Amino acid sequence: MFATTGKVHHLSTTARDLLQKIAHDTGIPYREVAKRINKAMADGEGFIQSVQRLAIENGLKENDYSLNPVQIANEISKILKEDYSQTLMISAVLGQLVESQGEDRLPPPAFFVFLEILSDVTDTPRRVGDNPPNNVDESTTRIIELTTTLVSLICEWNETGVVGVSKDCPPRARDIARSVFRKTKLLQSGLWCCVSCGRIVEAKHTRALLCSECDSNLSDDTTFGLSERERTRSGYGRSSLGDELE
Ligand SMILES: [Zn+2]
Fold it and tell me: pTM for the whole thing?
């Protein structure tokens, strides 16, 4: 961040970052910006397009207000590579949030993005000793913001949810977007492919997107390293783009 001209010059990586940047640059209060963008999106405009339109209306350069899906995916991947036990804890919390019925519910497509990137992460160092990582809450909140932002950019949405791959999706993120779309369709049809063993099961019998068998195996597995308190806690960050914009 080099704020030499009094303007914010950092690159935005989440929807919230981008809204804060345009609020800062236009002088329009953040809440007002969020309200206008929400309204535009409810009318069918894309997130980036509506932000850029606001930029143009205020005499700013539209190209300064964009988000890069590849950069967001890289940041998610970087966090997941930091620490093995932290990544396990983040996975457990996100698994809880995706099945939550409350306001903290993580949209399944955001969780699918998380799973896609997680499956590509292989070289996370295992730590020696059993000191818990100390910034899990912060990292989890960040992952939620990054995954909800990424899925809103690479997938095509309507009021029913994900309906395809966004035409703005860069080639490098197309495989992720396609997989998110497939998994979303499967879930919408009431079926689910267990993320652990791969069996097709009825979605209503899953827990954190695991079949009941894998879930009970996981709960018994003390090497998983999570106390009951950690497995049941919830309420990290905002859980959807819609909430975030309010
Ligand atoms: Zn299973």
Answer: 0.76
